[in-house]
Amino acid sequence: MTLDAIRIKTDEIVDFDIVSKMLDLSHGEKWRQFRSKVQRPILQPQTVKKYVTPIELVTEDFIRYMENARDDNGDLPHEFDNDIHRWSLECIGRVALDTRLGCLSPNVTSDSEPQRIIDAAKYALRNVAVLELKAPYWRYIPTPLWTKYVNNMNFFVELCSRYINEALERLKSKKVTSENDLSLLERVLQSEGDPKIATIMALDLILVGIDTISMAVCSILYQAATRLKQQDKMAEEIRRVLPDPSKPLTYADLDKLHYTKAFVREVFRMYSTVIGNGRTLQEDDIICGYHIPKGVQVVFPTIVTGNMEQFVSNPEEFRPERWLESDGRLHSFASLPYGFGARICLGRRFADLEIQVLLAKLLRRYRLEYHHEPLEYAVTFMYAPDGPLRLRMLERPT
């Protein structure tokens, strides 16, 4: 389920042409055509490799922010989950819009552009299901929820269009000898010649990516802080791969962090941030003996399947090693945090990159602890720890 599944009224959108394209691209042949235009540059490993250094620079700024935000005990502030959203937006902005948005500035206020982007993305993503699945009064009268949703979309379209127009102007005077000289955004602009395609891509990456990546990171850091044995094992692996903490990261370095990546996969298995993947059938089908008519939405509940005994050996045990072993029961489709097949998440490689860089930089120097009442996980639009993420951040021995 994505934001482009909502039908927008033509007289309420700043640039209806862009949003109407998003709506037309929800299903079928038009979606396939759009996907074919953007998936090649987004999904190529060499594209992701170009962003290791930019994401590392953003993450170093974030860790410096964390260092300064600690109290005398080393505890991070109650609103640390919003700080994670700021880091996530800064990363996505660097990838999707070719710019630093200034999210990690100490002077960011509640009415600043970065915070407005975060708040609008949260609101849009967490309320799209209400608009889709409840009685659609908004089709006939401008309900408060609908009005705020439209205002959010107006804001995002204006924002993305501004930065993409700036990138287009830079591209006109840029000397390009090969595709390697181009950023992701520039490649899409050059290959398609239509800024609106690039705008839709950026909207999708930002709107869907900010909240999901942030909530996933909240869950990963909370699990690391409450499972110190596994956290220390990650830190040992990171120290072994990165003996010199001042040396810049490379994609090859990240590729060697096998246990760290297994830890993330185990968090996703047991505490799947995305509770399920919805698909609207384009034709009648038979699933497990049931006839499902065309147009019905089918949901694959990955939050359930990842914890089922028939698919995973001892599913109640948190054991990252299971992803590194050949024995035991572990169905390859039991956990699908990014979906699967033609509609697999476009930004999954960048999401993995951001998470791996953050863990590599943070756990190389710091130990995370949690000294408060355990947090319960709550199901909203996603599945994440419910309550202040009051982590303690302590320097590791050099």
Automatic annotation (TrEMBL):
Alphabetic keyword roster: Heme, Iron, Metal-binding, Monooxygenase, Oxidoreductase
Cofactors (names): heme
Top-level taxon: Eukaryota
Binding locations of heme: C345
Alphabetized Gene3D superfamilies for the sequence: Cytochrome P450
GO MF terms, alphabetically ordered: heme binding; iron ion binding; monooxygenase activity; oxidoreductase activity, acting on paired donors, with incorporation or reduction of molecular oxygen
Pfam families in the cross-refs: p450 (PF00067)
Family the UniProt entry places it in: Belongs to the cytochrome P450 family.
Name used for this protein in its record: Cytochrome P450 301a1, mitochondrial
Biological classification of the source: Eukaryota, Metazoa, Ecdysozoa, Arthropoda, Hexapoda
